[in-house]
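Exercise: predict the fold of this chain.
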Amino acid sequence: DYGISEEVLEKYNIRYYDYQAQIVIPCYDKIGDLIGIRIRNMNPDCNAKYKPLKTLDGTLYAFPTEYYFYGENFNLERIRKRKEVWLVEAEKSVLKAETWFGDDNITLGLYGLNLSPQKLNTLITAGVNVAVIMIDSDFHTIDENDEVYEMFEKNVEKLAQQLKPYMKVYVCYNNQGFDGYKYSPFDFTREQFDILYKNKEEID
């Protein structure tokens, strides 16, 4: 329903645990070693959307998300070649980008909104010259006096301040008034995404 292809779900080893209504998301480091497993709760009554997988025998597949990007096992090498990265919050945006762009996918998932020194160093080491921030547009309308929009701006600025000493930084978000509360750029249609990307804004 989200528009992620079966081929991409298989490539990234995505599974579904029907009993708990959870999407199972294995996470790998840049050389392809399994570092942990996360689940995405589909039950709206759950208090956490994402958390580490815990098996029936009590094994917890937690890992330090501040050290890794989601998708780095597939996308980091092509990011090195392109010198550009698209930074998104969640795994689903990486998967959607893979469906749309295939071998041209240059997204990395932040596992939230945190760009730790370790993650920043990964980008610097990869020789990234251009970073496009594509976090979720957690607002209804662009309004400087709206607290929700102000928080979105603060989140973008925090990421940008970390990146700007090393690379050119843009933000791609819903600046076109599309209907999409809390949407990532990849939650829109491909046509809308192309418009948003064309209208991305450079952060001075």
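Check your answer against the key: DSSP finds six helices and nine strands in the chain.
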